[in-house]
């Protein structure tokens, strides 16, 4: 099948969910129908119709938005959707529960794909099951195109590309600092945490994916020098501040290591990366680091206990479908600093990138990151040597994504760190 046979540039699958709705609003506000042939998809025709009513009411450009209906548990409906799209962009989660049949359908149809998953156990499953077939089919399956893991993965690519151009060398280490921001969490995201911990309880492969820092690397390359996530508060010499473990490090670090591997190790096999939360200086910074580390440890311990996990899921967490309002999604912010250090023939260097946006990282900003990832794939606006495979944002799309995000108000800057500053 040629691309011209496909009716839609992008099918947004899961458009009636919390994240999906924000992506649909973003894409119909940013692009006109003549620029982007978009369809919204889901399992409920009624919910899709009311979404389309809302989208067309908000927009001068869109009189209608085509709808595709199917169910994640009906593989034939997914095959039909995949055959008719250049790109399927999906927010149907938990991906551990619903994701694999859609990836399989996209690989079969040679259709590009992007999603929002942060479930490393499931990414490992798709790597093992679909990578080779996706390479053969030239289907780009790009996972983790939201707050997990675009800022960390593309931020790392920014510092590495700058180091290559400026110093003709790579950064041996990259450290990612979550420096500030505010945001919210939806029922669907919490359901995905539950799915990940359920998988870890039942499946040794899922436990290995969570435990091994190189679990998302290609088979045969799943070991290396990087010890993995920081587990305790630590005073950081580069930032002259206290740092705590990052809740997203277990995803983002593995995604970055996979980017390095898929690109053929341009940053060497000894490359190390880490992601932490910066909590400030002095005793207050130390206390905050202790609180963040303790809170995260407590959450993980509680989620590891089956009955506690199901009680939290049933009585405490919001239901799937519940999440921030549009005003809340537009109100938050995030700021990430990426510091890379390397050695050139005439001495060591430090490169620094900033990545951020004035929107809720998981929703308002994620809608832009995922929406623009889909547009990059649909227009083949990518800078990547890879035509297919189970990919990452940096390896499958690359710097054109940073460029597009800058155009919609993101900070994505990079330069040499001030002398003596680091
Ligand atoms: N990486 C990030 O930064 C980030 C940020 C936000 C969200 N996420 C992830 O994105 C995913 C979605 O989150 P959310 O808050 O939007 O969840 P949500 O509101 O529960 O939405 C889930 C979507 O999946 C659809 N769905 C459920 N079962 C289905 C089935 N059998 N067939 C077809 N569609 C089905 C739902 O359809 P109905 O509307 O018909 O129920 C809904 O559209 C989660 O995995 C979450 O972790 C990641």
TrEMBL record:
GO terms for biological process: glycolipid biosynthetic process. GO terms for cellular component: plasma membrane. Residues 10-141 form the Saccharopine dehydrogenase NADP binding domain. It comes from the Archaea. This is Saccharopine dehydrogenase NADP-binding domain-containing protein. It comes from Halorubrum ejinorense.
